[in-house]
Specification:
- There is one protein chain.
- The chain is built from 28 helices and 19 strands.
- A hairpin with a 2-residue loop joins strand 17 (about 590-595) and strand 18 (about 600-605).
- The chain has five domains: about 5-50, no CATH class; about 120-260, Ribonuclease H-like superfamily/Ribonuclease H (Nucleotidyltransferase, domain 5); about 265-360, Taq DNA Polymerase, Chain T, domain 4, CATH 1.20.1060.10; about 380-435 and about 510-644, Alpha-Beta Plaits (2-Layer Sandwich); about 435-510, no CATH class.
Length: about 650
Amino acid sequence: MPGIGVKTAAKLLNRYGSLEEVLAHADQVGGKRGAALRENRDRALANRGLVTIATDLALDVDPTSLRRREPDRAALARLLRELEFHRLLDEFGLADEGERVGGEPGSAPGAEPDRAWVGVAAAGEDEWDLADAEEAVRVGTAAIPEGWRVRLEDPGVPVVGHGLKEARRDLVRHGVRLEGIRFDTEVAAYLLVPGRRAYPLDDLARSRGVALDDRPGGKAASARRLAAVLGGELEAAGLRRLYDEIENPLIPILADMEARGIRVDVGALEALSREHGNRLEALEARIFEAAGERFNPNSPKQLSRILFEKLKLPVVKKTATGFSTDASVLEELAALHPLPALLLEHRSLAKLKSGFLDALPKLVDPEDGRIHTTFHQTVTATGRLSSSNPNLQNVPIRGEEGRRIRQAFVADPGHLLVSADYSQIELRILAHLSGDPTLLEVFRTGRDVHTETASRIFGVPPERVDERMRREAKTVNFGILYGMSPFGLARQLGVTQETARKMIEAYFHQFGAVKGFLDGLVERARTTGYAETLFGRRRPIPELRSRNRAQREFGERLAVNTPIQGTAADLIKVAMIRTARALGERGSPGWLLLQVHDELVLEAPEDRAEECADRVREAMEGAAQLAVPLRVEVGIGPNWAEAH
């Protein structure tokens, strides 16, 4: 508890006997210590709950299974050789257990014969380096020698390398299905140091003293040596399980999704583009009329002259080059003159037209009529997947414009799209992690969390909550997740900072354990230097130690948001793995196409779409055992809009 040291805490406990009694007599404690007790009451109780050992659990454990047994020396030796933990082999006296394979460059990763393992790394456009203990070659994607093809397609042959998602995606287009993916140095490096722009093989090897080889096949051999080093680093950082159970199984799934792509109705997009072009022309005429002259609405300089010199509208904020005309400024000025609102509408339409309606048809593969987006596994610091060409995260979700764009993403003839979307996943994670009894009860009973929040912060029965109240409560709910300040909430809701502050205070009064939990996240991150998800993913937050106040506050927001958003990211990845496995059993009734935010999009034959929907719902809702149920909304339709 801030403001209460170890000695003071001991004195208070000796005087009053228990934490509850100390808090009950907080008014009798003077000065800053009394204030600290009163201000941090909920936090103290929540923290005690976090460190209290539960002794009343019914454990399904057979006492005989707890007896110490002799290790399976052969199995342990195989595992240690596979991971190249050769020092442990010596320490445990296992060096001679079975066939010993040396740790020098070119040796096999486990107890397989020397030629068993395969290293893979990109060597250039449409070229790949392949290497084993005896041979290293550079081959074209379309000309894989038969001997290598057989080994690459054998699930029993362990494959290590750099950029294995791209390798599997590119090879499958030429009839080679890369199996046996065991370790990707790019993904491993990302887990160790998330948030970098890129993880080049040469940089990773050089920074760890791993020899680089520029000869044909050399990059694959270098990646193999680097894998042994990074494997040890993952172990030391406590990240090996996250890699083995989530990130590595995801690699072939993402590769197959990229190779599959999704069909797009180009004609529908072109028709929409023409329609938007006509709307933009009509809108520009209204803009010129409101401005009293023609000008380029996309020019900040010309727009600034119109708004602030000609129309004499007030300057809201300045930039290094002049007066700002960004969206927040135009939103504020819209109450004073009709032109800013027209400009905002123009920007929105122009962005849709250029960013989607005109761009998407150019990305369609002419051979199959499908868009093959690229999923990025090693970009975001939170663990979220991102995508490019196109960036699917930016496809509008709500509104008529977004619906019409999604209508252009269609199923193949004789097939349907299946959309499966987690319901309020981040708020459910917050309920689980915070243990707040009120929030847990809301989700366990299936009530609408935004209506319940509105009822509690506005002090009205749930049946009297109107749309405005629910909308504002929804903003508060998600604002809490992102560490939103009263200033930020006030801007979002269009209310005063005082009103926003009272809404946040009302929220924390109703959901008391949430406040203590969020404060605890910041303190833990300040102590450890990183935030951590439920699955063990870590994000360093050096901003918490910055001398700059704005940077520290940014770090505090990261410390609050990362465990929640990062856990949601891990969950959707687990859901993808479970879904892929569920669909692979007993003959596939469908296949994954896209992952966007908390949604999976699949394609299935018309007569098996319901079966596909049932399997994906079961897989997603069973992705984790939380204190509240996971709920998935599933839809089926001929296009993305109707399925979503």
